Each structure stands twice: as C-alpha cells, then as structure tokens.
Amino acid sequence: MTHLGGPGDDDATGPCDGPEAVAREMADAVDCLTSLWSMAAQEAALRLSLHQLRALRALEAAPNLNLTALAERLDIGLPTASRLCDRLEAAGLLERTHHPRSRREVRLAVTAQGQHVLDDVAARRSQALAAALTAMAPAELIVLRRGMKAFLAGQDVARPQMSGPEYQ
Question: What is the Cα–Cα distance from 136 to 149, expressed in whole angstroms?
C-alpha cells in the first residue's frame, strides 16, 4: 500500500511525483473512501448489500428503467438483476409498474421508502466524510478541492481516449 506523505511533501518533486505514483496514492485514498462509505452505509437503519444499494442508486439516477437496462447498467446478468429486484420489492424499496404503451415491459422505480433509505445512506456518508475532512487544515482543503476539480477536468479530456476495445 502506498502512503501519502505528510504536510510539506507537496514541495518535493521527483520521479515519485509522476502520474503513476499519484495514481497509486489516489487508489489508496479511494480504498479508504470506499471503506468509510461502506461503514456509513452499514450504519443506516436498513442495511443493504452493495448490489442492492447500487441498484437503488441507478434507479434514482435514471427512473423507470426496465430490468434489462438495469442489468446492463449494473453489469450483471438478467437473472441476477431479477432476483435483486425481487428482494428490493419485497422490502418495499422498489416497485414494478407496467409501461403505459407496452404491457410486456415493466418499469422499475424507487419507492418513497427506498428514497428514504437512499437519503439516510447519503447523509451518513456525508457526515463520515465531513468528519474525516475536519482533520485537515483549511489550506489543505483548498488544495484538495482544486486537485479534485483538476482531476475531474482531466478525466473529461481523457474519457474520449478511453473508448477503445481495451476499455470495453
């Protein structure tokens, strides 16, 4: 595991400061963030598996997907998506409705209870992240924000390059 240095390390430059080294450090930070978010989600009133949470978040972002579209979005098989939706529906977090123009197509939507669970998990995650960020000095927070903005801008530029067969 790569460990980020302490304050003042950003003044140093050298071979360990290239994109590959920073990428390794970012990967460690993402692992830490993922763990923090997972723990926050497990503290919610209703515990959901990672797949269940991802499914609800996908339906929140794109309401009224059908089962096939949800399976594609989650990159899981259709039978797995169907069982996942069965469990979410049984828990009252998801509802299935018939498409108004096609009786064969079923739309999936997050219920009010499902939205409440998503809001609870999001609030807990934000609180956990804010608690971690309070340990940082104001100047470090400013640098972090700038770095995130630059990363997102760089990702937008790199995204068209990442469309070849090796990324599919």
Answer: 18
